[in-house]
Amino acid sequence: MVKKTYEEINEKIKRGTAVVVTAEEVIDIAAAEGIKKAAEKIDVVTTGTFGIMCSSGAFLNFWHTKPKMKMAHVWLNDVAAYGGIAAVDAYIGAAEVIEGDPCNNNHPGHFRYGGGHVIEDLIAGKEIRLRADAYGTDCYPLRKLEKTITINDLRDAFMFNPRNSYQNYNVGVNCSDKTVYTYMGILKPHCANAHYSSSGQLSPLINDPYYRTIGIGTRIFLGGGEGYVAWPGTQHAPNDPRSENGVPLGGAGTLAVIGDMKQMNSRYVRGVSITGYGVSLMVGIGVPIPILDEEILEFTTIKDQDIFAPICDYGILYPAGEKCDIGSVSYAELKTGEIEFQGKKIRTAPLSSYTMAQEIAGSLKGWINQGKFLLGQPSQLLPTDEKRGQL
Amino acid sequence: MAYITKSVFLRFSPEVVDTPIVYCLAHDFQLIPNIIKADINPQKQGYIVMTLSGDEDDYCRGIDYLKEKGLEVEALVDRISWDEKTCTQCGACTAVCPSRALTIKRPQMSVEFDGSKCIVCNMCIQACPVGAVKLDI
Ligand code: SF4
Ligand code: SF4
């Protein structure tokens, strides 16, 4: 029986002797050497994902003004941030559309700029126009503020994303007879194309399906900097049905993550405009999985051909709130660019970038190999059981 | 009958400014016009960039009609540019690109653009979330 502790692995990382491989590389190593030998040899498996994650945003603190101000409404490049927290704090959400955008009045709308773009621009060090108003109090008299800032002028800027890194995700198709513009991209009528959004065998929670190593305090790659798992993500649903290998057949687990934006790199945090849908943020996340025993190693050897995603109809059933699951397909099939569905061949495309996921898993491996990144032992693992409800 | 989408650049003089050409293209030639860019100056000279979708024969007859009316007509080619640096390699444009000008190279899963296959249908512009594909006018 292989048994390792976080302390032992971190000691090896500090000495530069830890063996770190990506979730792709581990597949061949385990096939060649067997699970036991691979678990003895490998200390950490790194994962990665890079895709649109709408439930993202950032807490910002602007430093106190002179005279002081309790900002009530805050805008960054004309995108509203939430000012209903203490004096000079605000939260900017990735999905907030710029003021005055025609949205879907002229369907499908373009949604050229929004919260996700503000976050990318901040991280890229660009100048941002800050506007705020207030009703004024005896202790905070200032009522209006307008100035140009960059991230360096902020006292604090940390990303806090309530729901990222879905364990698995739907494949979108459109069974209706008109094109639909969805968060799963442009879906042509009569199921003419299918879009999927997961890095499959590289995806963080797919590689640790029962969250044996991932929980509050797990140190991660977040947007090019060091971040942490803060909490189970909103809609974390570990009770979703699973296949025999433990991999969920639907969304299942999610992560709430947090990290210092001043460390991040805009290559891994991109504002996006989704035609007909809105604005959002592409986020790069990599989670290291410590190989504490053979079972954990075995889970990381999961391959695209053994991960199945539900095919969902975004034309009629999903928008109606009905059960929308009308089929199932593996990531290996999806990645060929064509699947057979309802008796015909249809083209597939990913919405999440596999090459970026590889790059993230590779960067995280590099950081650990250089001794720059130590594993964070979670103080509490993600829940594996939870009740679900519907409004 | 081949269904096509082509982009055209039209320049018009003050004499034709009052001719309802877009209406005629749709009504008389069953073409679907989609105006991408247009401008008219105070001297009533101007231009329109638009795509026309429809049957190939109708398209040719429509273009002849425009020329007869005295408009300068230029078919636009190779106007889509793909900025590899901006591209996130997500792949979202690849299943909607009808001519397979934007494709995924397998097994690497990297995205590639072959301008010679592009029919300038603009689907990728709508599909790309980061503006990595642009219409060069
Ligand atoms: S405009 Fe875009 S989608 Fe249309 S053919 Fe060219 S590359 Fe493909
Ligand atoms: S949709 Fe845009 S970002 Fe994604 S692969 Fe195509 S060009 Fe690149």
Secondary-structure topology with pairs:
The complex is a heterodimer of chains A (391) and B (137).
Chain A: H1 6-15, E1 20-22, H2 25-33, H3 35-41, E2 44-46, E3 49-52, E4 57-61, E5 73-76, E6 79-81, E7 89-93, H4 115-123, E8 128-133, E9 144-149, E10 156-164, E11 171-173, E12 180-182, E13 185-187, E14 193-196, E15 215-216, E16 219-222, E17 225-232, E18 255-260, E19 269-274, E20 278-286, E21 288-290, H5 294-300, E22 308-313, H6 317-320, E23 325-330, H7 331-334, E24 338-341, E25 344-350, H8 354-369, E26 380-381
Parallel strand pairs in A: 1-2, 11-22, 14-25
Antiparallel strand pairs in A: 2-21, 3-20, 4-7, 4-10, 5-6, 5-8, 8-9, 10-18, 12-13, 15-26, 16-17, 16-20, 17-18, 19-20, 22-23, 24-25
Helix pairs in contact in A: 2-3, 3-5
Chain B: E1 3-12, H1 21-29, E2 32-40, E3 46-55, H2 56-68, E4 72-76, E5 80-82, E6 102-105, E7 110-113, H3 123-127, E8 133-135
Antiparallel strand pairs in B: 1-3, 1-4, 2-3, 5-8, 6-7
Helix pairs in contact in B: 1-2
Bound molecules: iron/sulfur cluster (2 copies).
